[in-house]
Structures are given as structure tokens and as C-alpha cells.
Design the sequence.
């Protein structure tokens, strides 16, 4: 048993989408379900939870550590974090560390793709500030999301990096255990103090094919396990990265935590080369809006309108990746073509309030979507009939939100000539059939479903879908990266530039 080591824990987490029209300020963090939690309240709130922080606390209890809470704050993906919010959260964290007295170690759960107006490499900035307080000798181990964009500067100030192994992410708790166990091994002297090695091939893959159950991530994670099974290497972290971040650290990285410097550097190099050689496997063809609608309408056909639904995935507007959940182009095309079916969710408080004022059965001209910004299209102007009004509350039944109470805020079903649009006042990716049934729609009985989500929706909709068509529509999270005007990513970079060559060194 340890003689009560003093370990500080904290979390500041945001996946920043530079191209999102949704602003990120301190209220974006404070307004989350947990709000901003500080000091001892963190221990009270997170002990026993299956979260990264919960994992830290569990190992802390086993080790007999004295756990010191600092700050826990996270916000859903949106645009660059306001300088004031980043500074406030970072200074809160360092303030608690300053006041904590002697520390033996620090465990942080960060994201990796947070980009602040005053600190493009926000995690690097946070960890440098932490290092400045705790000094060179106190180990700092960090848990991150595999969508992180990791920089060499970040790697210089941390002692260990643990990343999610799963996408969709279901292992934050297990990785929290792993991070804390790594810290325990360092503190006990079981291993000597590791260093963190990085390889960064010039690649910026879209997020469309980063799932860990199939595609290129499977091979990368397999190879990584082989490296980890030998001595000298504590962890190999594969970060495919997050491409909607316009800064020079954006892109894929391999981060190796190793006690053997020669092996650590070699592993990073080899894994970086493997990721580079496999880069094309991260791409997936998408159909343009007109082509996707064509294909859907052909599949549905006139005779077969009662078969299972064809799903059009509006992947570019996924709120889970920084989309505003209200881009209009796919809806516009469907309305023009007279398509029948249902759309979830359109974030549109203005249309919802209009529908509530009209009441069920009321009819009026609506301006649908395109409210957060006109960057991705003007509102669709169309006559609609209000079919249902709801408080937007339901309990999820699909794998992603099973058993959880989901709150969409006031929600209206607006019927535009047979295209039924679920309009909400809270922004959500429709990752459960409940987003349709909350306004009385049975999704399996619709010929066509439009879902604004990238991947998580598949768990509940693949079983009822005839097919899923991913659409190349305007939005802040489009897999077709040539749509974006990058100004700061380091060039040349694949796939934005042609004929990029690279060899790991
Ligand atoms: Zn992620």
C-alpha cells in the first residue's frame, strides 16, 4: 500500500470544429448536464461512474491515494473556444493545483482536438500550464479521444498518453483505469519514468471511416497490440485525428509512451508509416445531394413504397461532429422532388415556436433550417402543416441512448407535402428511433428517413433500413474536405493536396 500519494485529477474537454457556426463560450461548458464541477464535488459526483474520471477515482481508491479534485468541464462539439472560456478553465485548473500543496502526480482527461482562439493547441497549452505549476518531477498522465490532433509540443510536457480504443467511444472508463494504472506503475517504481514519442504523417483523413469495428482502424489497432505486448513500450495510441480543425497540428498521429527510447521512437515511426500507407482506406465515396435523392427515389420506387426505409445520412451536418443540425440543402432537394418520408432532427427553434403558435392542424409558410448561419444554405421556404407538438422528451431504446432520458426541448412535426420534419429547440443527432416516435412517427413504416448524424445512428437504424446512403451536402462536418477553406493546416497534406509523398524518419 502506498503512503497516501496525493494525486490531482481534472477534465477539460471539447472537440472543436473550426467550420461550425455554433459559438463556444464558457456557458457552452456550464450549460451541459454536469455543468462545471470543481474541487471535492468532483470526487462526490464521479465516484462509481463509468467515466474517465470515475476510472481515475477507482484506481485511486485501490492505491490508497488522496484524490484532489480540480475542475471538470466539457461541451458538445462546436466552433473555436472563446479565449475567455479557455483561459478561465485553464486558470481554474492551475489555480486548484497551486492551492493543493505537494502533489505526487496528475491525471487529466482531455479531448485532444480542442482549439481555442488564444491557443490553437489547447491541450498543449493546458499541459504546459500544469507543468509550470507542478514542476518537472511530478508525472502527468493524460487520457484523450482518438479524434485528437496531437502536437510534438504537447508530447514534450506529458509522461504518458492513453487514448480511447473504441469509436463510437464506449471505453472512457476503461482507459481512465489504464491511465491511472500507468501513473501507479510510475509512482511505485515498477517502471522507470516513460517518455512520449510522436509520429505525424502528413495526412488529414475525414472522420467518415474511423470506426474501430471495421476499416483501417482495425489493422492499426491490431499492429499496435503487437507492439504493446513486448517490454519497453507502455502504450501505443492511434489518433486518426479530427480534420475540421484549421490549425497546423491537425491530422493523424501515433503517440507512443515508452520506457525504452529506441523502441519507442521506432514503434512511432513504423506505426506512422503504416497509417500513411493505409491512408486511402480512410476515404469513402459519397453521393452528391441530387444523386443521393435520385438513388433513394429509384430504390423506393412506386410499387415498393411500403418496404423498409431508405436512409439518407446527412453526415456533413452531424451535431456530434460540430454540425449545426439545421443545414437545409438536402431538405430543399427532397421538397422540390416531392419526396415522402421523415427528417430528424432539424434544430429550428423559430419554426417550432411558429408551429406551437399555430397549433396542431395549423398551416403556414415556414422558413426551415439555415438559421445558425447562411454558410451552408439559406432556409427552405415552404408551406407546412403542423401534425404534432411535443415536449420532446423520450426514453431511448436503441444502443446509443438506451435507458437515458433524451430532451429535445419543444418539438414540432411539420409536414411539407408528405415530407415530415421533426423540428427541435435543442440540437441533437438523431441516434435513436425515439427522435421520430416522440412526435408519433414509426420510422420503420416510412419510405425514406433523413438523419443528421455521421455514424452513431447506425446502431439503431441499420436493423430497420433497406440501405443507408451517405450524402455530400453542405455542412460543418463534411467528409469531402475539399469543401473547406483551410488557412492554417500544414501543407502539403493528404488528401487536400495531390502527390504528397512522405516517409517516416
Ligand atoms: Zn471522438
Sequence:
Amino acid at each position: 500500500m502506498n503512503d497516501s500519494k496525493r494525486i490531482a485529477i481534472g477534465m477539460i474537454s471539447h472537440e472543436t470544429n473550426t467550420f461550425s457556426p455554433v459559438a463556444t463560450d464558457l456557458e457552452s461548458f456550464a450549460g451541459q448536464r454536469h455543468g462545471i464541477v470543481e474541487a471535492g464535488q468532483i470526487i462526490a459526483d464521479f465516484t462509481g461512474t463509468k467515466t474517465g474520471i470515475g476510472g481515475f477515482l477507482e484506481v485511486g481508491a485501490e492505491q490508497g491515494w488522496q484524490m484532489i479534485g480540480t475542475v471538470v468541464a466539457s461541451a458538445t462539439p462546436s466552433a473555436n473556444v472563446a479565449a475567455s472560456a479557455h483561459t478561465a478553465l485553464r486558470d481554474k485548473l492551475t489555480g486548484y493545483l497551486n492551492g493543493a500543496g505537494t502533489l505526487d502526480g496528475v491525471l487529466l482527461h482531455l479531448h485532444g482536438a480542442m482549439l481555442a482562439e488564444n491557443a490553437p493547441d489547447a491541450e498543449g497549452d493546458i499541459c504546459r500550464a500544469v507543468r509550470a505549476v507542478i514542476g518537472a518531477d511530478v508525472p502527468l498522465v493524460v487520457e484523450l479521444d482518438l479524434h485528437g490532433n496531437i502536437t510534438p509540443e504537447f508530447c514534450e510536457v506529458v509522461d504518458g498518453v492513453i487514448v480511447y480504443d473504441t469509436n463510437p467511444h464506449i471505453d472512457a472508463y476503461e482507459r481512465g483505469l489504464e491511465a491511472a494504472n500507468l501513473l501507479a506503475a510510475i509512482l511505485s517504481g515498477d517502471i522507470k519514468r516513460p517518455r512520449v514519442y510522436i509520429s505525424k504523417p502528413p495526412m488529414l483523413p475525414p472522420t467518415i471511416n474511423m470506426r474501430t469495428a471495421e476499416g483501417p482502424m482495425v489493422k492499426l489497432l491490431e499492429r499496435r497490440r503487437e507492439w504493446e505486448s513486448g517490454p519497453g513500450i507502455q502504450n501505443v495510441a492511434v489518433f486518426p485525428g479530427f480534420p475540421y480543425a484549421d490549425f497546423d497540428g491537425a491530422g493523424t498521429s501515433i503517440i507512443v509512451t515508452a520506457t525504452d527510447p529506441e523502441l519507442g521512437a521506432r514503434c512511432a515511426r513504423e506505426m506512422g508509416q503504416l497509417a500513411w500507407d493505409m491512408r486511402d482506406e480512410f476515404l469513402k465515396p459519397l453521393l452528391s445531394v441530387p444523386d443521393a435523392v435520385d438513388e433513394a427515389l429509384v430504390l423506393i420506387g412506386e410499387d415498393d413504397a411500403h418496404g423498409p426505409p431508405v436512409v439518407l445520412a446527412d453526415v456533413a451536418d452531424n451535431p456530434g461532429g460540430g454540425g449545426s443540425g439545421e443545414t437545409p440543402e438536402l431538405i430543399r432537394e427532397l421538397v422540390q422532388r416531392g419526396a415522402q418520408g421523415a427528417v430528424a432532427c432539424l434544430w429550428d427553434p423559430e419554426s417550432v415556436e411558429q408551429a406551437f403558435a399555430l397549433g396542431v392542424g395549423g398551416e403556414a409558410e415556414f422558413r426551415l433550417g439555415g438559421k445558425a448561419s447562411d454558410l451552408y444554405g439559406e432556409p427552405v421556404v415552404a408551406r407546412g402543416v403542423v401534425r404534432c407538438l411535443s415536449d420532446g422528451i423520450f426514453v431511448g431504446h436503441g444502443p446509443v441512448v438506451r435507458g437515458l432520458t433524451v430532451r429535445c426541448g419543444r418539438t414540432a412535426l411539420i409536414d411539407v407535402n408528405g415530407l415530415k420534419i421533426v423540428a427541435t429547440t435543442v440540437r441533437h443527432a438523431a441516434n435513436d428511433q425515439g427522435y421520430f416516435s416522440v412526435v408519433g412517427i414509426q420510422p420503420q413504416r416510412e419510405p425514406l428517413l433523413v438523419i443528421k448524424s455521421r455514424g452513431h445512428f447506425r446502431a439503431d437504424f441499420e436493423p430497420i433500413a433497406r440501405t443507408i446512403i451517405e450524402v455530400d451536402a453542405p455542412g460543418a462536418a463534411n467528409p469531402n474536405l475539399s469543401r473547406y477553406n483551410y488557412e492554417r493546416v500544414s501543407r502539403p497534406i493528404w488528401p487536400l493536396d495531390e502527390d504528397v509523398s512522405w516517409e517516416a524518419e
Remarks:
- DSSP finds 14 helices and 20 strands in the chain.
- The mean pLDDT is 95.
- The first helix runs from residue 26 to 30.
